[in-house]
Design a protein that fits this description.
- Belongs to the peptidase S54 family.
- It is a multi-pass membrane protein.
- InterPro entries: Peptidase_S54_rhomboid_dom, Rhomboid-like_sf, Rhomboid_protease_S54.
- GO terms for molecular function: serine-type endopeptidase activity.
- With 194 residues, the protein is mostly helical.
- It has one domain: Rhomboid-like fold (Up-down Bundle), CATH 1.20.1540.
- Helices cover 68% and strands 6% of the residues.
- The protein is built from eight helices and two strands; from the N terminus they run αααααββααα.
- Strands 1-2 form a two-stranded antiparallel sheet.
- Strand 1 and strand 2 form a beta hairpin.
- The longest helix has 26 residues.
- It is globular and about 55 Å long.
- The N terminus and C terminus are likely disordered.
Length: 194
């Protein structure tokens, strides 16, 4: 099993599985309940993150988050000798949640089944990071705590520093894309505008 895990990190041209398993795990779920819970959280936070970042940047961050959180999960599992599948969907969702909670720490949140109890987004993020840190340190197998932590840390880093370091450098490309898309829509090219 160690050899299979190692092929994800090699650059051997004969290896067919370089980064694609980490990208594809962004869409993988353990069960139908796992998928439903993740999709509910994504639906709850997607409008906030899209208004903060825009559609293109949201997609780029989400896919990057899946790869990064899966990589963190692989490293943690190799370090502890536990070779189980990594599901990057939860890590990508955690990135979105952490990004929104970092940008809007005073926003009020509630749990779906307990709407009478509200708490701030900043408090929720601290509790989630503490829970996943304890889970990773104590070896709990309830969730993929390493993927959650990797996703949360990436989300906090991205909205604090990454946007300026990464996305601002791609701004000319995005502007050219928007101009091209607007021109095609204006000429009756069948595209739709936002």
């Amino acid at each position: 099993m160690r050899r299979v895990m190692f092929t994800y990190f090699t650059s051997d041209p004969s290896s067919k599985a370089l980064c694609s398993p980490m990208l594809l795990s962004t869409f993988s779920h353990f069960s139908l309940f796992h998928m439903a819970a993740n999709m509910y959280v994504l639906w709850s936070f997607s409008s906030s993150i899209v208004s903060l970042l825009g559609c293109e940047q949201f997609i780029a961050v989400y896919l990057s988050a899946g790869v990064i959180s899966t990589f963190v999960s692989y490293v943690a599992k190799m370090a502890t000798g536990r070779f189980e599948p990594s599901l990057g969907a939860s890590g990508a969702i955690m990135t979105i949640l952490a990004a929104v909670c970092t940008k809007m720490p005073e926003a009020k949140l509630a749990i779906i089944f307990l709407p009478m109890f509200t708490f701030t987004a900043g408090s929720a993020l601290k509790a989630i990071v503490a829970f996943d840190t304890a889970g990773l340190a104590l070896g709990w197998r309830l969730f993929d705590h390493a993927a959650h932590l990797g996703g949360a840390l990436f989300g906090m880093w991205y909205v604090t520093y990454g946007h300026e370091l990464i996305w601002k450098n791609r701004e000319p490309l995005v502007k050219a894309w928007h101009e091209m898309r607007t021109k095609n829509t204006g000429k009756g090219g069948g595209g739709r505008s936002n």
